[in-house]
Amino acid sequence: MNHGDASYPSQDQKKPLRSRFARCYTGSALIILNTLIFLIIINLILGVAFWAYDWHRHAEKNWTSQPRANAFFYEDGSPIDKRKRNIYLFDTYDFTACEGISPEEAAAVLEDFFESLQTGFIYQPWVQFTDVPFRSKHLNVLSDEADFPRRHTLNPDNPHKLPEIVVWTLGGSTTFGYYVADQQTWPSYFSQVLNERARQENLGVHIRVENYGRAAYTPSQEVILLWDLLRSGQRPSLVIFMDGINIGGENDYPDATSELANLFQLVQKKRLNHRLWAESLPDIPLGRLATFLWKKLGAGAGWPAPGINEDQLVRWRCNRFKESWRLAGELSRHSGANLLVCLQPNAFYHYNKDLCRFPKNDISEARKRQTEALYGTLRREKGLLFLGDLFTAWGPRRKACINEVHYTPGFNKFLAEHLAAQIDLKKLPVSRGYLPQEATGAPRRAHLAPNF
Q1: Would you state the pLDDT for residue 297?
Q2: Which residue, 58, 193, 412, 429, shows the most beta carbons closer than 10 Å to its own?
Q3: CB-CB contact of 116 with 152 (8 Å)
């Protein structure tokens, strides 16, 4: 008897196994292939739909009765499509708010910002991100003595080499001066007003204002930036925090934290690609749809996370502001500088939103509600310069914002004049300048992008 026949399957027995495996493989392959084809078709359909939607938004005014005010802007203040524009500007920018500014100049400023923003931001230690050094006619981001990027401020010349009072201005994009020229930011106007007063009063000093405003910076980032600037060996006379618009979410950390956390994990695993797949998600039609639904369902800025009510969110933000200001005061005093903390004019607080071209939605209403609660609490802080009602002084029916939050050139000047009136130049110390011997390290070379 051959016992091998009982131990091994015959050729006839192997055929059903191979057949079942082949059917399983074929079925799985068909499911995967059909799924991929389905996703490709869905993305193609959504891509065409989004293309048509974007084209319609760009061209809508061209095939409606919307009249043009000039070669660059429509009568409602929105930009005419001149290539160097984006959806954000089409939806929000309002040239009619730019009193005394020619359409040619306003359009040129938008083009400079478009070119600058094409490069995005660059990494900076401790604060995560900063502006890229940039030069153009209307927008210049230059490096200081320790190589920290800063917006160019038009300070008068100091031909007589008078002792300098150095003022640092820290804040968000309204301090940086988004969508206005270098000479139209409030720090530039502030420098003009203070230097004129110093000359008239024969104080024998020159005032130099430095603009360290950064887009999206919260008070927590600003106090860390102040600490880093002081560690570089630079010594100001006065530090001004212009806060209120950038309030942050429930977690007190910068916007790019989640992305950097993912990058850190990838670096440890040595799987860092030049561009993460996750970064490309919003560029894929399905990813764009998911992002749209995510924001539409209330997961955007201003909405508390599940389990967190608005009262708790406001308390955290109040504590965040107050603690940042307290630390800024300690740092300033330690370096021999004065500190002025301002709660800035805010389009989400006591401003007629009918004056804005920004579309109203549930998120903006939640932001307005939370900002009013925040300002209502913080305005009672001792030593705070409250500027939240400055829109009323400017004129309740007069446009102060160039879009949903950023100030017009005219309002920047008005703000600078009001702020300068609160400054006693005689009480400010002369700056000790840049002291590299007191720095904790070499100049940062922040303008060099990482070499991936």
Answers
A1: 56
A2: 412
A3: no
How far apart (Å, rounded) are the C-alpha atoms in residues 162 and 228? 27
Query: How many Cα neighbours within 13 Å face the side chain of 202?
Result: 0
Helix 186-200 with 409-420: angle, nearest 10 deg: 40
CA distances from residue 99 to 352, 355, 358, 411 in whole angstroms, order as listed:
18, 14, 19, 9
**Mean confidence (pLDDT) of the chain:** 87
pLDDT (0 to 100) of residue 281: 55
Q: Is the pLDDT of residue 306 over 70?
A: no
* Residue bearing tokens 């409602």: 76
The C-alpha atoms of residue 226 and residue 442 are separated, in whole angstroms, by: 17
Tokens of 116: 């600058």
- Measured CA to CA in angstroms, residue 367 lies from 29, 87, 252 at distances of 49, 21, 17
Phi-psi category of 273—alpha, beta or left, where left has phi over 0 and alpha has psi -120 to 50?
Answer: beta
Radius of gyration (Cα) for the chain, nearest Å? Answer: 28
The partner residues of 239 in beta bridges, in order of sequence, read 168, 339
Give CA separation, 6 vs 2, 17, 19, 44, 58, in Å. Answer: 8, 17, 22, 57, 77
Per residue in 168-222, pLDDT (tens digit) is: 999 999 999 999 999 999 999 999 999 999 999 999 999 999 999 999 999 999 9
- The DSSP annotation for 119-169 comes to T-EEEETTTEEEEPPB--SS--EEE-TT--EEE---PPP-TT---EEEEEE
Integer Cα distance of 402 and 351 in angstroms:
13
**Cα–Cα distance between 44 and 134 in angstroms, integer?**
37
* Architecture in CATH of 120-249+301-438: 3-Layer(aba) Sandwich (3.40)
3-class SS shares of the chain: helix, strand, coil, % to 5: 50, 10, 40
CA distance 366 to 197: 42
126, 228 contact by CB (below 8 A)? yes
Q: How far apart are CA 35 and CA 49, in angstroms?
A: 21
In sequence order, the 6+-apart residues with CB closer than 8 A to the CB of 272 are: 263, 266, 452
| Domain ranges across the chain | 16-61, 120-249+301-438
- pLDDT band, residue 260 (cuts 50/70/90): confident
SS3 252: coil
CA 261 to centroid of chain Cα atoms: 19
